Predict the 3D structure of the following.
Amino acid sequence: MALHPKKKHFKKIVAHLTEYESKENVDSQLIDLITFIGIDQKYPVFLGQTMKFLLQNDYAVNPATFKSFVLFLERCKGFEEDAKRFVVLTSETKHVQVDYDLLRPLFLRTIKNKTGNEVLKLFEQFRKNLKLNKAN
């Protein structure tokens, strides 16, 4: 499957995993593989739908995998705003949290390609979702 996947087969495998397997049986390595294939074959729409389902249903998504997914969406023309929405979505999950390593590439790309006003807008959008470290 990983060598020459067809999109219809890929969709059927992912559908089977999400419908018939319990989330305890779908480990982070399997999610990594699904994400890797989706990125490699350039399926931003289907991969976005799948990742949204996995995040909202508390599957064990690896933070590094999520970061590569968000950066993939950021590179796909027309999906830049979706990448930002996914970062905001992480504030509602247990397994993936917004951190500096996730936001840094988004800011660097925005600084290179956009105006100062758009950088400030991006900062304000993410500032609301950052949780400050509190001293105990």
Remarks:
- Helices lie at 7-20, 28-40, 44-56, 63-75, 80-89, 100-113, 116-127.
